[in-house]
């Protein structure tokens, strides 16, 4: 049986909320420590291969099932499943879908360290036929995002079926979730800065991890980064600039990219920075073919 990714240790916050008649999760009930150490070995199951993961549980409407909350049982993957390839309705910048199985829709966008999920919620209606996933290390925050999406699905049937969230350590396990060339867009919005020099190795953009991101991105796929910490902004730009498989996308080109225009304000962290009048540093790069 495929692994469903359910973390049975997550407390039943939703149950308590629903019992109180609340349909949307309240963020304050899901707060946890601001930072987790991404080098720690956390105790949650990880699929050995992307195909071992039970994606249908997360996107039932795309796998031949009705729109459902994340906690409902997964329908089977098979005939009649909608495809998640880029649709005609998707903005023109979306990369051509890389090879995938005709039967199994594939996730094409990943928001790494998605926090409370603001970007996913904004992207969902812009690319309604594209599956996208948030990947978040903190279990209570992951739970919040899942409940937020479930509430939106209940409120607006037929919408938000293409977004979901997984608890995982993206610095260790991305290739366990995505096959070579699968992703079209990879987002790193306001990643933890790890200020101390001794902790720079914990940064989620570094040369070794860029090799991994290049592996799971399709040629033509895009990596988006933004931060309000100038030193980290320079660091991410330098690492991307010196990597042979990425080329910078100009601001002119980005002006026509709906996803790029969400980077500053779609997420909770971005909104906090904007409220405080903070500056941001954005680096967006395209995955290019090796020569
Ligand atoms: C500063 S917050 C930014 C959240 C969100 N992107 C935003 O802009 O609001 C960074 C997030 O990355 C998550 N994170 C850090 N390391 C991670 C990892 N290795 N894998 C997945 N998530 C991670 C943290 O738990 C935190 O929620």
What does this structure look like?
The chain has helices at 13-19, 118-126, 139-155, 170-177, 207-216, 230-241, 251-254, 268-275; strands spanning 107-112, 131-136, 163-167, 183-189, 217-227, 246-248, 281-287. The protein is α/β, with parallel strands linked by helices and 291 residues long. It is built from 8 helices and 7 strands; from the N terminus they run αβαβαβαβαβαβααβ. It has one domain (63-287): Vaccinia Virus protein VP39 (Rossmann fold, 3-Layer(aba) Sandwich). Residues 1-16 and 71-100 have low confidence and may be disordered. Helix content is 26%, strand content 15%. The chain is globular and about 45 Å long. It has a 7-stranded mixed sheet, with helices on both faces. The structure holds S-adenosylmethionine (SAM). The site of S-adenosylmethionine has 22 residues, from β2, α4 and α8.
């Amino acid at each position: 049986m495929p692994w469903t990714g359910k973390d049975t240790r997550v407390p039943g916050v939703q149950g308590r909320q629903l019992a109180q008649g609340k349909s949307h999760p309240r963020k304050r009930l899901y707060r946890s420590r601001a930072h987790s150490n991404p080098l720690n070995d956390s105790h949650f199951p990880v699929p050995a291969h992307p195909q071992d993961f039970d994606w249908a549980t997360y996107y039932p409407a795309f796998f031949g099932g009705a729109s459902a909350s994340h906690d409902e049982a997964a329908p089977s993957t098979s005939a009649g499943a909608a495809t998640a390839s880029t649709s005609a309705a998707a903005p023109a910048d979306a990369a051509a879908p890389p090879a995938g199985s005709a039967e199994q829709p594939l996730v094409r966008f990943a928001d790494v360290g998605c926090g409370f999920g603001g970007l996913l919620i904004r992207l969902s209606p812009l690319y309604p036929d594209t599956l996208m996933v948030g990947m978040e290390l903190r279990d209570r925050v992951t739970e919040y995002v899942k409940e937020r999406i479930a509430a939106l699905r209940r409120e607006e049937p037929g919408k938000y079926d293409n977004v979901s969230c997984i608890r995982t350590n993206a610095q260790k396990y991305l290739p366990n979730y995505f096959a070579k060339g699968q992703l079209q867009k990879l987002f790193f919005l306001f990643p933890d800065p790890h200020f101390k020099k001794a902790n720079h190795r914990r940064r989620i953009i570094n040369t070794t991890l860029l090799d991994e991101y290049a592996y799971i991105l399709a040629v033509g796929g895009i990596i988006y980064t933004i931060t309000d910490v100038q030193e980290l902004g320079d660091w991410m730009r330098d690492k991307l600039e010196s990597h042979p498989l990425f080329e910078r996308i100009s601001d002119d080109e980005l002006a026509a990219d709906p996803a790029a225009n969400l980077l500053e304000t779609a997420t909770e962290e971005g909104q906090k920075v904007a409220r405080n009048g903070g500056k941001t540093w954005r680096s967006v790069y395209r995955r290019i073919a090796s020569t």
